[in-house]
Amino acid sequence: MTFKAEYIWIDGTEPTAKLRSKTRVLADGAELPIWGFDGSSTNQADGHSSDRVLKPVFTCPDPIRGGANVLVLCEVLDIDMTPHSSNTRALLTEVADRYADQDSWFGIEQEYTFFKEGRPLGFPIGGFPAPQGGYYCGVGADEVFGREVVEKHLDLCLEAGLKISGINAEVMPGQWEFQVGPAGPVEVSDHMWVARWLLYRVAEDFGIAATLDPKPAKGDWNGAGAHTNFSTKAMREGYDAIITACEALGEGDKPLEHVKNYGHGIEDRLTGHHETAPWNKYSYGVSDRGASVRIPWQVEVEKKGYIEDRRPNANVDPYVVTRLIVDTCCAALEKAGQV
Ligand code: ADP
Ligand code: MN
Ligand code: MN
Ligand code: MN
Question: Which domains does the chain have, with CATH numbers?
Answer without folding.
Answer: 2-86 (3.10.20.70), 95-335 (3.30.590.10)
